[in-house]
Amino acid sequence: MFEPDRVITCIDCGGRAHLNCYAPEDGWAPGDVTVYRCEDCLDAWYLEVPEEIDWERGRPD
Ligand SMILES: [Zn+2]
User: Which residues span the domain enclosing 16?
Assistant: First the structure.
Protein backbone atom coordinates (compact mmCIF):
# COMPACT_ATOMS: atom_id res chain seq x y z
CA MET A 1 0.00 0.00 0.00
CA PHE A 2 1.22 3.48 -0.78
CA GLU A 3 2.47 5.40 2.23
CA PRO A 4 3.22 9.10 1.83
CA ASP A 5 6.34 10.48 3.47
CA ARG A 6 5.67 11.88 6.93
CA VAL A 7 8.00 14.80 6.36
CA ILE A 8 9.04 16.43 3.12
CA THR A 9 11.29 19.37 2.36
CA CYS A 10 9.39 22.61 1.86
CA ILE A 11 9.65 23.71 -1.74
CA ASP A 12 9.71 27.38 -0.74
CA CYS A 13 12.00 27.68 2.27
CA GLY A 14 13.69 24.31 2.59
CA GLY A 15 12.15 23.74 6.00
CA ARG A 16 10.38 20.62 7.14
CA ALA A 17 6.81 20.14 6.03
CA HIS A 18 4.82 17.59 7.98
CA LEU A 19 2.05 15.38 6.69
CA ASN A 20 -1.11 16.97 7.98
CA CYS A 21 -3.88 14.57 7.07
CA TYR A 22 -5.01 11.03 7.70
CA ALA A 23 -5.03 8.14 5.29
CA PRO A 24 -8.43 7.31 3.78
CA GLU A 25 -10.11 4.26 5.28
CA ASP A 26 -9.26 2.09 2.30
CA GLY A 27 -5.77 3.48 1.90
CA TRP A 28 -4.21 5.95 -0.49
CA ALA A 29 -5.10 5.72 -4.14
CA PRO A 30 -3.70 7.63 -7.12
CA GLY A 31 -5.32 11.03 -7.37
CA ASP A 32 -5.93 11.36 -3.62
CA VAL A 33 -4.46 14.53 -2.20
CA THR A 34 -2.11 14.64 0.75
CA VAL A 35 -1.60 17.84 2.73
CA TYR A 36 1.69 18.97 4.20
CA ARG A 37 2.26 22.01 6.35
CA CYS A 38 5.66 23.64 6.65
CA GLU A 39 6.79 24.31 10.21
CA ASP A 40 8.89 27.27 9.12
CA CYS A 41 6.80 29.30 6.67
CA LEU A 42 3.48 27.60 7.53
CA ASP A 43 2.65 27.13 3.88
CA ALA A 44 0.43 24.21 3.03
CA TRP A 45 1.41 21.88 0.23
CA TYR A 46 -1.09 19.70 -1.56
CA LEU A 47 0.45 16.73 -3.26
CA GLU A 48 -1.42 14.21 -5.33
CA VAL A 49 -0.66 10.57 -4.86
CA PRO A 50 1.21 9.66 -8.04
CA GLU A 51 -0.39 7.49 -10.66
CA GLU A 52 2.64 5.33 -11.14
CA ILE A 53 3.52 3.42 -8.03
CA ASP A 54 6.46 1.10 -8.32
CA TRP A 55 4.74 -2.01 -7.01
CA GLU A 56 7.55 -4.19 -8.29
CA ARG A 57 9.96 -2.79 -5.79
CA GLY A 58 7.41 -2.55 -2.98
CA ARG A 59 7.39 -4.73 0.06
CA PRO A 60 6.17 -8.21 -0.81
CA ASP A 61 3.47 -9.00 1.74
ZN1 LIG B 1 8.44 26.48 4.19
Answer: 7-51
